[in-house]
Amino acid sequence: MLKRVKEALSKTRQRWREGLGTLLRGRKAIDVDLLEPLEEILLSADLGARMVQRLISGLRDRLGRHERSDPSRLNDFLKSELLAFLKKIESPLKASGPVPFVVMMVGVNGVGKTTTIGKLAMKFNKEGRSVMLVAGDTFRAAAIEQLGIWGQRVGCPVIKHQSGSDPSAVIFDGLSAAKARKSEVVIVDTAGRMHTKFNLMEELKKMKRVMDKALPGSPHETLLVLDATTGQNAVSQAKQFHEAIGVTGVVLTKLDGTAKGGVVVAVAEELGIPVKLVGVGEGLDDLEDFSAEDFVEGLLGE
Ligand SMILES: Nc1nc2c(ncn2[C@@H]2O[C@H](COP(=O)(O)OP(=O)(O)O)[C@@H](O)[C@H]2O)c(=O)[nH]1
Ligand SMILES: [Mg+2]
User: Which atom of ligand 1 is nearest to the CA of 110?
Assistant: First the structure.
């Protein structure tokens, strides 16, 4: 598991190590004049301005107290600070308690919602739990088809209506069917939408109301899918979705092949939303529980 996330974050880590190496070359001690270039490097890993400020001021305090540790300790300090912070937002997806347990997936277009649903269905299926998928992205016929294919691969039922129909209607039917069949986990797909489009955000609110009507208390998790390659824009997406419908967790996809993996730290810092899952590829098994340790190792490790 550590290997997958570490591999996925290798570009971010490589950039960090190169920057740090250049910065510390020939240094005997950490001095205040290091703080500014260090800040630059941390910002380029997309940890977000606030997190970077927090780390830099922590270092400044230490230097002020004349804790002039040798440069090789710098990375350890940053790692332990980051770890302490990320531990607070580490929260694996349990999907236990209510039956059916309903998970709603939201996010902008192309971030990996449908793919994550397929992976998640596989994960639950492997745990021996019955899963049902609901094709709440009725916007395009291709989206309904795509979910159907994932359902076939995993071997779980997919509840769908025709494209162009009201997403709330298929969601109501889906949850009713799940209740009747005693499905353990229901995962609801939704159409991608720009976080800045008022009407589309209102539509999400309606879907949530309909879920609560069909199965009081649901959805039990509202997961926002964020594409790690988008960098800091993910933070404004998270803010808007959270304000509109109350996100309970984040899924960070496409961590493989990006040097912007630090963005999850920025999202957590701004909003305090737990990070549940991490996508590390396009395959069925390319989904991991978020682990603070692995993440910090991946970002700042050897
Ligand atoms: N490399 C990589 N690609 C991913 C990951 N998750 C999704 N994708 C790809 O992103 C594209 C969009 O995914 P899709 O699930 O259709 O996004 P949606 O519009 O949010 O439903 C597809 O080509 C997926 O294969 C991931 O973790 N890593
Ligand atoms: Mg989709």
Answer: 19
